[in-house]
Amino acid sequence: MIGTLLKNYFKNFNQFSVEVKVLAITTFINRLGAMVVPFLSKYMFEELHFSYSQIGWVMVFFGVGSFIGTWISGKLSDKIGFYKVMVFSLFTSGLIFILLQFLTTFYSFCLGVLLLTTVSDMYRPAMLVSLDTYASKSERTKALSLVRSSVNLGFMFGPLIGGIIITTLNYSFLFYIDGLTCILSILLFAIYVKEKKLPYKLNTFKHLKEDNSVFQDKPFLIHLVVTLITGILFFQMFTTLSLYYKEAFNFSSIESGLFLALNGVIILLFELSIVGYVESKKINKLLVVSYGVLAMALSYLFLLIENSVLALVAMMIFMTIGIMLTFPFANSFVKKRSLKKQEGKFMAVFTMSYSVAHILSTKTGMAIIADYGYRANWVFLACLGFLGFLLAYRLVFIVKKEKETIKKKIVQSLFAVDSK
After folding, report:
1. Which of 68, 158, 163, 383 could staple 254 via S-S, CB 3.0–4.6 A?
2. How many helices (H) and strands (E) does the chain have?
3. DSSP, residue by residue, 307-363
4. Using CA atoms, how far apart are residues 126 and 74, in angstroms rounded to an integer?
5. pLDDT greater at residue 408 or residue 109
6. 255 in helix, strand or coil?
7. Cβ–Cβ under 8 Å, residues 369 and 240
8. Is 79 within 8 Å of 116 (Cβ atoms)?
9. Residues 177-204: tens digit of each pLDDT
C-alpha cells in the first residue's frame, strides 16, 4: 500500500513544471534543516534553563517576528517581486540561524529570535505568490499541496535527524545544519529558477473595488479568524506538546522526533490524493476546511487519556487529518478572493494570522499549563477548535449566499442592458 501511495506521489510530482519541482525540492531541503524549531522550547528549557514564563515570552517574540516578516513580505512582493524576497529571506536567515546559538541570555535570545523570524518568514507569502507564476491556474491548489508535502517530508525526517544529533552530539550542530541548509536551498533555487513575471494582466474580482482594504471583505475576515484558531491548535505541536512528551512520558529527543515524523509521513502519503479527490469531485472546499477544524479539535480530547501512548498516536493522526483538510484549501480560498494587484497583501494578511496564532498559542498555552496543568490546556484547545468548526461551517453558507447575490446582480445588469 505504501509503495502504491509513493508511486502516486511521484506521478503527481512529475506533472508539474520544472520551476514548481525545484520550488518543492528547495522547500524540502529548507524544512529538512529546520530541526531547531521543534526542539526550541526543549532547548531553552534544558540548555538555557529558562522558566515556562520566559519560554512563553521568547515564543511571543517568535510570533511577533513572524508577523513583521510576513507584513514586510506582502509589501515587497507587490513592489519588487517575490523572487528577490525569497532569495534574501532564506540566505540571510541561514546566517542568523548559525549565530543564534551564541545568544544565551534571555534578552539577547529574544532579540535573536525576533530578528530570525522577521527575516525567515518573509519567505512564505512570497513563495505562495510565486505559485501563481510557475503553476497553471488549474494546478495551483495541487502545486500548493505539493509544496506543503515537501514541507512535511522535511518535517518527517528533520525532527528525527535532529533528535539523533541532540542525543549523539549536541544542540550546536542543529543551528549549523539549519543555517547551512537554508543557504543551500536558496542557492539551488537561484541556480535552476530564473525570475519571471506574469505575461498578462489578471482580472480582478468584481465584488471588491480595487482601492478597498482587504479588511472590508467580511467572508475573508471570518476566514482569518478560522485560520487564527487552526494556527493556535497547530502550533501547540511544537511548543507545549514537545514539553509534554518529556514531562509526562519522559520521551527522549529521538522519541519526540518520531511523533512529529508520524505527522509528516501521513501528510506525504495522503494529502496530494485528498486534494486531487476534492478537486475532481468538486467538493465544497470550505466544507472540507470545517471538517478539518473539527478533527483538530477532537485530537486534543485524546490527550485527556493519561499515560497512554496509543492516545498520543490517535491525537497525532486526528491532528494530521485536520491539517490535510484545512491548510491546502484555506490557502486556495484566499487566493480566489484576492485582488490580483494586491495578492501579496492578501497572502501577507492571511499568513500574518498564523503569526498572531503563534504568539497567542505559546503564551496562553504556557500560562494555562503553569497555573492549571496540561489537562486544562487540552480542554481549552478542544473548545476553541469547536468554535472554529462552527465559524468555518457558517462561512460555507455565507459564501454560498454571496455567490447567489452576485449571480442575481449579473442577471439584472444583463436585463438592464437588453432593455435599452
Report:
1. 163
2. 16, 0
3. T-HHHHHHHHHHHHHHHHHHHHHHHHHHHHHS-GGGHHHHHHHHHHHHHHHHHHHHH
4. 7
5. 109
6. helix
7. yes
8. no
9. 778 878 887 888 888 877 765 444 444 4
3-state secondary structure of 194: coil
Q: Residue 279 in contact with residue 141, Cβ under 8 Å?
A: yes
Other CB atoms within 10 A of residue 17 CB: 14
- Per-residue pLDDT of 294-334, as tens digits, reads 999 999 999 998 888 898 889 989 998 998 888 888 877 77
Supply the pLDDT for residue 202.
Answer: 41
C-alpha cell at 264: 509528516
CA 147 to each of CA 84, 132, 408: distance values in angstroms, whole numbers, following the listed order: 19, 13, 38
**Which residue shows C-alpha cell 501511495?**
5
- d(Cα 188, Cα 91) in Å, to the nearest integer? 11
Q: Give the span between the Cα atoms of 384 and 166, in whole angstroms.
A: 34
Between CA 335 and CA 327 the distance in angstroms is 13
**What does the chain come to in residues?**
420
Nearest to 362 by CA among 250, 237, 261: 237
State in Å, rounded, how far the first CA of the chain is from the last one. Answer: 64
The 3-class secondary structure across 175-193, one letter per residue, is: HHHHHHHHHHHHHHHHHHC
Q: Which of 85-89, 255-259, 353-357, 371-375 has the highest mean pLDDT?
A: 371-375
Nearest-angstrom CA–CA distance, 48 and 159? 20
